[in-house]
Amino acid sequence: MSEHIDQESFAHKHTELRDRLARIKMQLDPVDRSDDETAELAARVFELLQTKRQQWLTAEKRRLLEIVFLNRTLDGVILCPQLRKPFDVLAEGLLVSSSRGDWI
After folding, report:
1. Distance between alpha carbon 36 and the CA centroid of its chain, in Å?
2. In this structure, are strands 78-81 and 72-75 parallel, antiparallel, or unpaired?
3. C-beta of residue 100 within 8 angstroms of C-beta of residue 93
4. Residue percentage of the chain with pLDDT more than 70
5. Which residues are within 8 A (CB) of 87 and not within 5 positions of it... i.e. 6 or more apart?
6. Is the separation of the CB atoms in 72 and 79 below 8 Å?
7. Mean pLDDT of the region 70-80
8. Binning pLDDT at 50, 70 and 90, where does residue 91 land?
9. Which among 21, 44, 83, 91 would be 20 to 30 A from 28, CA to CA?
10. DSSP letters along 23-90, please?
């Protein structure tokens, strides 16, 4: 091997390496973009989970309040108990609007 590289060989190898580098960068771009998109998606999921956790807690509190105050009504600003006797439903009668009426 000679100690000197001629200008033509250098230019040819330089072009070859530059093209190879460009191809490698083109292959890496989607990978980098994918990592960025994955990180962004993870951040969105985390934020969504934080809001969903709060919504779930709020829904659970509401459900508990509905169970506790099942037989209460709001009269203005006062919560009044709604007392029903066991046979009140039978005394009121059947309240079905789609009943057959009197032809049974």
Report:
1. 20
2. antiparallel
3. no
4. 71
5. none
6. yes
7. 79
8. low
9. 44
10. HHHHHHHHHHHHHHHHHHHHHHHHHHHHHHHHHHHHHHHHHHHHHHTTTEEEETTEEEE----TTHHH
* Residue 24 structure tokens: 């490698």
Instruction: For residues 68 and 62, give the distance between their C-alpha atoms in angstroms, rounded to a whole number.
Output: 10
Which has the higher per-residue pLDDT, 6 or 84? 6
Residues in the chain: 104
Tell the residue number behind the tokens 């007392």, with chain if given: 83
Q: Give the residue carrying structure tokens 């807690």.
A: 57
Residue type, 92: E
Q: What is the pLDDT of residue 54?
A: 80
Cα Rg of the chain (Å, integer): 38
